[in-house]
Write a structure and sequence with these properties.
Elements: H1 12-34, H2 40-47, H3 51-66, H4 69-104, H5 112-145, H6 150-175, H7 180-216, H8 228-235, H9 238-252, H10 255-269, H11 283-290, H12 294-319, H13 322-341, H14 346-374, H15 380-409, H16 414-418, H17 427-454
The structure holds ligand LWCESWJD.
The ligand NCCCC[C@H](NC(=O)[C@@H](N)CC(=O)O)C(=O)O binds near residues 138 and 388.
């Protein structure tokens, strides 16, 4: 038997280069997913929309995914591979983002109704690409890093996405020069840039496949293929059900919150949307102005997770305790939303945001590797696609629901709010997210119990089998 030859992925330099290239795709798609949060005030004044309509635009990202588009993405990925799936969903995401940008420039008509309709259509198309790209990039990371630094690579990959969220949220007002359309066009061009880099990655993908196929004669791994029976197996796996429901409850209280956080800080704590001129300020005044700016402070949440997700990831790898850490994350989530809704203290508000940031680093670091302990490897593609689909049901509801609830509870004051005489009261919409936190704790405890019964090994370090 011939010796198995070294492949491209055996070179650490090439592996990490590939990770950076594919992660730029995540950077662009996460930017586009989240940047509008920093523009909410501007969108309301410039496009004449209310909070509920803003919520609809954000929520439209999830609509096609709610009815199974991510599953279609997963099937295309499993049947035709990374290259075909990446190109198809890269085109879909770029097209959706371009339609959204054109709509804000008034290409399809400049009345608010037409603009909104096409923005939603564009974001819906983009959303199909976003989620499938996330699955494709995750799958590609596994392809290159399995047997190497997989947990760290996944954490760094998510960190690129968080960079996109942080910078998109913090800087879109300035990038747009105080207008919505240029900020949307810039965000759309980042997806195009990420897609071009992904096309460049395909050269590495083709080379690696050739090398792996050559080695397969010496005994390689069989490709995974989508089977509908896998769905049935997943739907009857208790651990998978708990972790999927936990994923919905947890992310529903985080991603939608981030979309509204700048507006909450402006309305509740008197923060600004636009930075004042910093040039004549002392260093302390500059820092004060930044920490008093809604989009910038919100941007710090995902920015903090960039450091902490890999740290928590390596704790999970080395010490285990993934289910316990998810319980802790759910407690932090409740503290965050209680302190941001029921109290009016800015200090407590900052503590709430820090607590949310830690939970946002902790839970994903513990949750995503745990899926691989609960579900057999040949069903992982289907497992991630199913989780993302169900996650989108919650996201769709809360992206829109927070805005709709905001308009509803403030209905007596809407005219005064529009005229700038009053501020939105965010208490009830944010308190609703506390319910998600409570459900998350319950599910995390159920997961811990299921782990003890089924011996998934969630509390054990990476690579240690439960007996
Ligand atoms: N290896 C899996 C990484 C998932 C990271 C996770 N992303 C999601 O949940 C997606 N559905 C993306 C999205 O909706 O933006 C995350 O924590 O970002």
């Amino acid at each position: 038997m011939d010796a198995i030859k070294k492949t491209l992925k055996d070179s650490a330099a090439i592996r990490w280069l590939v990770l950076v290239i594919i992660s730029m795709f995540m950077f662009g798609t996460y930017w586009f997913q989240d940047f509008m949060s920093g523009l909410k005030g501007l969108m309301m004044s410039e496009l004449g929309i209310n909070s509920s309509q803003f919520g609809l635009i954000i929520s439209s990202t999830t609509w096609a995914n709610m009815v199974g588009m991510i599953m279609v993405g997963g099937i295309i990925l499993d049947k035709w591979g990374i290259r075909v799936a990446g190109v198809v969903f890269g085109i879909v995401a770029s097209l959706g983002a371009s339609i959204t940008a054109m709509a804000t420039y008034g290409v399809f008509g400049d009345d608010p109704g037409t603009m909104m309709k096409f923005m939603m259509a564009g974001r819906m198309l983009f959303g199909i690409g976003l989620e499938s790209i996330c699955v494709i990039v995750t799958r590609t990371t596994v392809k290159w890093f399995k047997g190497y630094e997989l947990a760290l690579a996944m954490a760094i990959n998510v960190a690129f996405g968080r960079f996109g969220t942080a910078f998109g949220t913090a800087f879109s007002v300035e990038i747009g020069g105080g207008h919505v359309a240029p900020a949307v066009a810039f965000a759309a061009s980042l997806i195009g840039f990420g897609f071009i880099l992904f096309l460049a990655y395909l050269i590495f993908d083709i080379r690696l496949d050739k090398q792996v196929n050559a080695n397969k004669k010496e005994g390689g791994e069989p490709e995974e293929d989508f089977k509908f029976s896998d769905l049935v197996k997943l739907a009857t796996n208790k651990g998978f059900i708990y972790i999927t429901l936990l994923c919905v409850a947890f992310y529903s209280a985080v991603f939608p919150f981030i979309q509204y956080a700048p507006d909450l800080l402006v309305n509740k704590f008197g923060f600004t949307y636009q930075l004042p001129d910093l040039s004549s300020m002392t260093l302390f005044e500059k820092i004060g102005a930044i920490f008093h700016n809604g989009p910038k402070v919100t941007g710090l949440i995902p920015l903090g997770t960039i450091l902490f997700t890999p740290i928590f990831g390596s704790i999970v790898d080395k010490k285990g305790k993934a289910a316990s850490l998810m319980i802790l994350g759910a407690f932090l989530l409740i503290f965050a939303h209680v302190s941001l809704s029921l109290f009016n203290s800015v200090t407590l508000g900052y503590l709430g945001l820090v607590s949310l940031g830690v939970a946002f680093a902790l839970v994903p670091a513990a949750m995503w590797p745990s899926v691989a302990k609960i579900v057999a490897e040949n069903r992982l593609g289907t497992a991630y696609s199913s989780m993302f689909t169900i996650q989108n049901w919650g996201l769709g509801l809360f992206f829109w629901g927070i805005g709709a609830l905001l308009d509803f509870v403030n209905r007596a004051d809407l005219a005064a709010i529009k005229a700038g005489e009053k501020m939105y009261d965010y208490t009830i919409p944010i308190l609703t997210l506390v319910i998600c936190g409570v459900i998350s704790i319950f599910l995390a405890f159920m997961l811990l119990r299921a782990d003890k019964q089924n011996k998934y090994g969630l509390e054990l370090p990476s690579g240690v089998e439960a007996k």
